[in-house]
Design a protein that fits this description.
seven-stranded mixed beta sheet; Jelly Rolls; single chain; 8 helices; 21 strands; alpha/beta; elongated
């Protein structure tokens, strides 16, 4: 069964992300309303809808009176249009944590919540009030109402950022996490008229956020990567990269060329070593050294190679033959000298990971020919 989901404010930051995510689900059909949609489009969409996600609203109007018109009154008109259709459609509303503040924006959102709760009471429909903190992620508008979007945009372009109070606290929710929560809500549709928790949320200071994003730019210029696979850093990193200008979609890395072939350092990490690759011409042997603590992993991508090992104390020897046609990871073992020889008639291409960044002052790489 297909669920027809109507999104108001579909042209906004949250709306664009959510529309794309929902379009990826076979059991969901997406209906969109934007600022350009008229009353006829509104009523036609409501007639089709099985579920409504109400994102439309205003947050930075030139006239404060527009808060009430764009948030409260527009929501009340939406509720009226739903009731006029004769349908009791469940609705999820992108409200704000600022409803507890005595501000024009917060109070307009609170009044919009009340309008929807009244609609739910009259119609029997479920109403889900999502009191969202600062939402960030790809396609957020910089220099508008998102400090994260502004920091990402300016820092990526080498422009200054303004931080009035570095210790000011921010509560954030990442756009993909919000989308996940909404998708789950559409699937479950619990019987409820009231606030519903969405998350996870993150807490950090403005200064911490600025420092993390500034670090992304600095690391990129040095071929470094931090811990960007989980949590807030993952979300901020994705947001930063999504905001890069097209001229920064690629960057060169240094290659070290000698008669044996080429060696290129691809990426360095602070705590988990570095990734590189090298080439070797036919018949060429590379390596011929041992390590006391360093560990490496090799993966031949093209060609055929023989890895040779010799124990530095016992003299025991070992050999591994591998090729790009049979992906095999070969590890170097501390205390064993080792080398790699290209035994094919084509250029050998090999990926390499080392568990630590190469330190010229303490390389832990001692020459020893087998």
């Amino acid at each position: 069964m297909t669920v027809r989901v109507l999104i108001t404010g579909a042209g906004g930051f949250i709306g664009r992300n959510l529309s794309l995510r929902l379009s990826e689900i076979d059991s969901i059909s997406v209906l969109k309303l934007t600022r350009e949609s008229d009353q006829k489009a509104l009523r036609a969409s409501i007639a089709e809808a099985d579920f409504i996600i109400h994102l439309a609203g205003v947050n930075r109007p030139t006239d404060p009176a527009d808060f009430d018109a764009g948030n409260h009154q527009a929501t009340r008109e939406l509720a009226t249009a739903i009731e006029d259709s004769g349908k009791a459609i469940p609705i999820a509303f992108a409200s704000s944590t600022k409803v507890t503040e005595n501000s024009a924006y917060g109070q307009s959102k609170l009044a919009a919540e009340q309008a929807l709760l009244e609609y739910g009471t009259r119609s029997g429909a479920s109403v889900y009030l999502m009191r969202l903190p600062n939402v960030f992620g790809k396609w957020a508008r910089p220099n508008y109402n998102s400090a994260v979007a502004t920091f990402c945009y300016n820092i990526a372009r080498g422009l200054p950022i303004r931080v009035d109070n570095p210790s000011a606290s921010l509560t954030l929710i990442y756009i993909d996490d919000l989308a996940d929560a909404i998708i789950d809500l559409i699937a479950r549709q619990p019987s409820l008229r009231g606030t519903i928790e969405v998350g996870p949320t993150y807490s950090a200071t403005v200064g911490e956020i600025a420092e993390i994003i500034q670090g992304f730019r600095e690391d990129r210029t040095r071929g470094l990567i931090g811990s960007v696979g989980i949590g807030l850093s993952r979300a901020l990193y994705a947001t930063y990269i999504a905001g890069l200008p097209t001229g920064q979609f690629s960057y060169e890395v240094a290659g070290h060329v000698d008669p044996r072939g080429t060696f290129v350092e691809l990426l360095k990490t602070r705590t988990s070593g570095q990734f590189s690759y090298f080439t070797a011409h036919p018949g060429v042997t590379r390596g011929g050294h041992y390590h006391h603590s360093k560990v490496e992993k090799f993966l031949v991508l093209q060609g055929q190679a023989v890895f040779r090992f010799r124990h530095m104390v016992t003299g025991e020897q070992h050999e591994v033959r591998t090729s790009g046609d049979n992906p095999t990871v070969v590890e170097t073992i501390p205390g064993w000298t080792h080398d790699i020889t290209n035994v094919s008639g084509e250029t050998l291409i090999c990926m390499l990971w080392a568990n630590e960044i190469f330190d010229r002052e303490r390389p832990d790489t001692i020459a020893e020919i087998l």
